[in-house]
Amino acid sequence: REMGLEAAADVVDQQLRRFGLRMDAARCPRELEGRWRVDKANSQTLCPFVVGLGVPAWMCPAIGLLERTTELTIRCTSDDRAIRIEDKTAFSSRNVTEVTCDGVETEKASKTGRKRFYLSGAVAPDSKTSVVKCRLFQRGEGWETRQERSAIGEHRMRERNVLVRPGEKDVTVDRFFDRVEERAP
After folding, report:
1. Which of 24, 84, 121, 160 could form a disulfide with 98, with the two C-beta atoms 3.0–4.6 Å apart?
2. Rg of the Cα atoms in the chain
3. In degrees rounded to 5, what are phi and psi of residue 108?
4. Partners of residue 64 on adjacent β-strands
5. Residues 63, 51: contact at Cβ < 8 Å?
6. What is the DSSP letter of 50?
7. Over the stretch 156-170, which tens digit does the pLDDT of each residue have?
8. Residue 114 phi, psi (nearest 5)
9. What angle do CA 75, 80, 81 make, to 5 degrees?
10. Angle at the Cα of 176 (from 172 to 180), degrees rounded to 5?
11. Hey, which residues does 178 pair with through a beta bridge?
12. pTM surpassing 0.70?
C-alpha cells in the first residue's frame, strides 16, 4: 500500500514538473526559420557520428553522398512554443521532427517501430540556439544525441551534432548551412 502511494506521489511530482517546465518554456528562436542548404565545403562529415551509433564504416561513402544535398526547413509554431525541422536529401524522403521548447521528454519510436527513445527540445540560454535531444534509453544509461542549431548572422546557420556515450569521448560534428530564402515574417 505504501508503494502505491509513493508511485502516485512520483506521478504527481512528474506532472507538476512538466507543467512548470511548460510554463517557463523558452520561445522558439525565429532566427532559424526558413530554408537552409548544407555548405558541404565547410561542413564536417556525419560519418564519425553515425559510426558511433553503430552504422558500419563501409557505409560512409553513401552517407557522404546524402549529406551533400541536405536541405532543412525550420518553422516555429504560431505560439512559439515548438520548433518543426524538416530534413531532406536528394535521395531520401523528408524526415520531420517537431518538439516543444520546454525540455519535456516525449517517448517516440523509430520509423520501423523497433527502437524507442525520448525526444525533447529546448532553447539554450542565449535564446538563439535550439537544442533537440534524443535520449537513447534502450542502449543503456548515458546514451544521447544532441543537435544544436544557431544562426550566425542572417544567412548562415551552424548545426552541431553531439553523440554522448558512457565511457567514451563525445563525438562532435559541425555542419554549416546557408539560407536559401528569407525568413517568414
Report:
1. 84
2. 18
3. -130, 170
4. none
5. no
6. H
7. 999 999 999 999 999
8. -75, -35
9. 105
10. 150
11. 37, 156
12. yes
